[in-house]
Amino acid sequence: MLRVIGVDSVDELYSDIPEGARFKGDWDSLPVGEGGPLPEGRVAEVMEGHISRIAKLKAPPFMGGGVWPHLVPEAVRHVSALGQILTSYTPYQAESSQGVMQALFEYQSMVADLLEMDVVNSSMYDWSTALAEAGLMALRVTRRRAILVPEAMNPRHRKVLEAYLEPVGGVVKTVKADPRTGQISLEDLEEKISGEVAAVYLEQPGYLGQIEEEAVTVGEIAHRAGALYIMGVEPVSMALLKPPGRLGADIAVGEGQPLGLGLNYGGPYLGILAVAWSGRLVRQMPGRIIGLTRDAEGRRAFAMILQTREQHIRRARATSNITTNEALMAIRAAAYLALLGGEGLRRLAETVWYNSHYLAARLSEIPGVEAPLLDSEFIADFTTRLPTSFTEARKRLLAKGYAAGIPLEGHTTWLTRNDGLLTATEVHEERHIDGLVEALAEVLGVQ
After folding, report:
1. Going by DSSP bridges, is the β-strand pair 228-233/251-255 parallel, antiparallel, or unpaired?
2. Which sign, positive or negative, has the C-alpha torsion 274, 193, 163, 158?
3. Which domains does the chain have, with CATH numbers?
4. pLDDT digits (tens, 9 = 90+) for 260-274
5. Stated pTM of the model
6. How far apart are CA 249 and CA 253, in angstroms?
7. Torsion angle, CA of 342/346/348/350, rounded to 10 degrees?
8. pLDDT in tens, 363-391
9. Are the C-beta atoms of residues 228 and 141 closer than 8 Å to each other?
10. Is 21 helix (H, G, I), strand (E, B) or coil?
11. How far is Cα 6 from Cα 8, in angstroms, rounded to an integer?
12. Which of the residues 27, 286, 372, 442 has an alpha carbon 20 to 30 A from that of 230?
């Protein structure tokens, strides 16, 4: 095989794999059968034996920061696995059934209700790309070039936003956060708002877990300067918090992963993008929008609308180069929202609030641990300060069977090597939380 493809060795074949991730042993030492390579079943058995030697987690991961562990109901898995839904690659009009378009229409409708926004597309890749598209929309609509973002925002989302804006001359500028609360500094925002600012972006809750108390004021400052107001949200928390539509947002973005998608080893996920009613914003939205109409015989019918924005019609003049979307993920989210309903989603959010506060309270009982570190209300995510390196403590906790948090050193000018981001959701029972606390106390050498 190597000779046919023109490669001299196995090492050369895998040269694109980072050195630290490559197999360091002897290839000839790998198990083979008497007659050559092992059959598939035996290979699976050997690999399971290797995996069994790796420390198994004793609890769901206590990691959030943009992707959260949540229960995926079996009903959602079943619906999304139906052949009519699973095999629909991308719902252009000619390729899409009425059933698929109705499911996407229901997704749009339920997310619009949840966020109290007027128009929702279906859909984007994830939160970061939804934010990037929102930034591009703001530049086109206002004909300005700068986006103001909070210092404490999700760093991965910021990198994607910068990557999208740079080719069209857009810039991302930072607004400071209050080190005590993690919330955006209104004073610094007032100083940096100007006639070149296309939009102000705010996360609710913020990446550090803080719930922004001045979200309405942020929007008012943006609007006085003629800028748009973009809010990034986590959808489950919207069952308890005031939604972006009620806070004056022009554009709302977010991550649909908590809505029945699971962790999925990093994807696929679901980017939420919604706008308040405005012809200039709706016509600048990327992606698909499903509309409801009537056919010639008066029957209810679903159709793709506003396709003139799309690149298969407008080519280089399209509002976005997005082609495929996350239709299957949007249908999963629709099934999840329909299954829980409004009351069920609220009970879920209350459970997440309780579990995360219980985790913070238990952690604060350990001498030298500050939890939460920030003086702000929170749900799911919160920031913790240990008396030692968070990264080192995290490694030792993993060896004990607990995946605990995200190190925050360098994220802001005031976060240290001892700081990290922890989360708890409905999947974390009290026994999981108590186990993590006991393990951390052992790691820190305290009783």
Report:
1. parallel
2. negative
3. 74-336 (3.40.640.10), 341-444 (3.90.1150.10)
4. 999 988 888 999 999
5. 0.88
6. 10
7. 180
8. 999 999 999 999 999 999 999 999 999 99
9. yes
10. helix
11. 7
12. 372
